[in-house]
Amino acid sequence: MNMRVCVVGVGAIEAEGPILELSHKEMLFHATRKALDDAGLERKDIGSAITATFDFLEGRSLSNQYTLDSIGGVMKPCDLRLGEDGIYSLFAGYMEVMSDPSQIVLVASVQKASERDPEGLGYQKLIADAMEPVFSRPVCKSIPNLLNLESILAAMEARAFMERTGLREKDLAEVAVKNLKSHCGKKGSEPDMKTVLKSETLSWPIRRMTKAREADAACAVILASEKRAGSLRNEPVFVSGVGWASDRSHLPFRDQGISRETKWAARQAYKMAGIRRPEKEIDFAEVSDWYAHRELMHCEALGLCSSGEIQNCAKDRRFDKEGKLPVNPSGGLLGSGNAIGTSGLIRVAQVVDQIRVQANGFQIQRPEVGLAQSWGGIPTATAGVTVLSKW
Amino acid sequence: MSGQSRILEGYVSLPYRWAMGETTTRFFDEFKNKKIMGTRCGKCNRVLIPARSFCSHCFDNVDEWVEVGQEGVIKTWVAVNFSYEGQPKEPPYILGIIELDGADVGLPHFIGGVPMDDFDELAKKVRIGEKVRAVWKESREGNILDIDYFEPVD
After folding, report:
1. Residue of B nearest to A118 (CA)
2. Which residues in chain B have Cβ-Cβ distances shorter than 8 Å to A122?
3. β partners of residue A98
4. What's the complex ipTM?
5. Fewer C-beta within 10 Å: chain A N or C terminus?
């Protein structure tokens, strides 16, 4: 069967600090150019181009019209735009390839946190604006320090998660140390538990270092059918399963401290990929660790450990880079920063890099089946999951 | 049901700061010297205004800087004679798209230096395809409004 969808090229622009020398349009161009070069393709080969980011975060409405130039989408038959996390562009691209297996589909996302402001105030205001306005926003707006709104909401779910699982603040700090270590691995600077646990408390148990800092990034991924991919330069990586789901839209109606959306998204992706025992069949995963507790919540929901076992995973180090099932070997969002709205697609690119054994400095052993998961962030309950596997 | 429904007042506030990038920054710095610079694509030869760092058609980097003319032709225009919130200047005024000599894309800007009190007279001078020339402000800060307006060339 020639109907499987493959990733044939990836390109990303990331930086430790704000990217000021390039406009967000230029960042997207460079990511796209890199992906085309990686795949050995040109703009003329692109059949369809799709972006996923949020207008509010980009600071302009209808921003897809503005970024079309940057993704090679000028005068192409399809410019699809998703106001969603970057991983959703992969899902849309997947469907595009399925609908016309002869075409090359480019999906992309860009994010410039530094344009909102270095402290993320813009995003905090956005969260206040994302809250349901009649019942929830009035109790959020009266919180004295608006800056901490995101952490306040995160703290509520973290507390519920810790209460249910018995996980302690130390366990959350371990996650941060693990991911910072993976990220800093090459540079040799070793963050320790003490530093993490001494970092500023934003809203207990959320600390400065157990919450990912915001970052600027752009990412592009090129998709093709198995048949088309066979004639291209790179060994393709199969998209063996995709799934996405949302829990109840009203935050107080949701079960707290559990990522049901991730569980449901994974269920779909696993069904497609024929995965029955994820903890045995998945070799590694890149998941959203927007907050340290979220990494564990997501691993639990993804079935990367047996039911009721998540508290042991923190102790037995199975999610370490050298562990049984490495989680976030790239350093995740806690390590490399969170390009809100784009980081989901970067997770996909990182899984592809691992499977192609091209994850410079982050490479793990024998990566054949990888999982990428992304979550929309507070106050959403939306998640996307994809399983990628070796050709 | 009482048939009544109250309104809850609120607002959405999104402060933002856009990084222009090095290419746009240089484009505006050249304005201080009354120069309008574009970039030429080495593949399709198009000259892009404002200067851009890549060609959306050939999808490659573009870094050859060329100065374009201070004169160009009107592609289209509109006379604005009403007020709205956040308006850039007091009405009446004319907004147009101008294709500068040596450039392959249009530039949106004001058209001025014409009598605004008589539309028929105005429409004789401001016409599609008519030649216009940049009029610079005395004090220039490196932004799009350093050009005060484009005036018809007799």
Report:
1. B17
2. 14-16
3. none
4. 0.83
5. N
A22 in any annotated domain? yes
The answer as to whether A135 is a domain residue is no
Burial class (CB in 10 A: 0-12, 13-18, 19+), B15: exposed
Give the nearest chain B residue to A28 (CA atoms).
Answer: B54
Q: Is B61 a member of any domain?
A: yes
Q: Is residue B12 part of a domain?
A: no
The whole-angstrom distance between A113's CA and the closest CA on chain B is 10
Domains in chain B, number: 1
- The enclosing domain of A65 has a CATH number of 3.40.47.10
So what's the pLDDT on residue A144? 46
Give the residue numbers spanning the domain of B40.
Answer: 21-152
B97, part of any domain: yes
Distance separating alpha carbons of residues A199 and A21, to the nearest angstrom:
31
Q: How many structural domains is chain A composed of? A: 1
In A, what residues contact B, Cβ < 8 A?
18-24, 26, 29, 32-33, 36, 42-43, 56, 59, 68-70, 72, 74, 112, 114-117, 121-122, 125-126, 129, 133-134, 137
Confirm whether B72 is domain-assigned.
yes
| CA–CA min distance B144, chain A (Å) | 17
Residues of chain A with confidence (pLDDT) below 50: 1, 144
Please write the tens of the pLDDT for every residue from A60-109.
777 777 888 999 988 886 667 788 899 999 999 999 999 999 999 999 99
**What stretch of H or E contains A68?**
none
Q: Rounded to whole angstroms, how far apart are CA atoms B42 and B59?
A: 11
Return the closest-CA partner of residue A114 out of A235, A18, A33.
Answer: A18
Q: A30, A43, A57, A137: best mutation site toward chain B, by most B Cβ within 10 Å?
A: A43
Element (H, E) at A225: strand A216-225
- For residue A236, is it within any domain? no
The pTM for the full model equals: 0.92
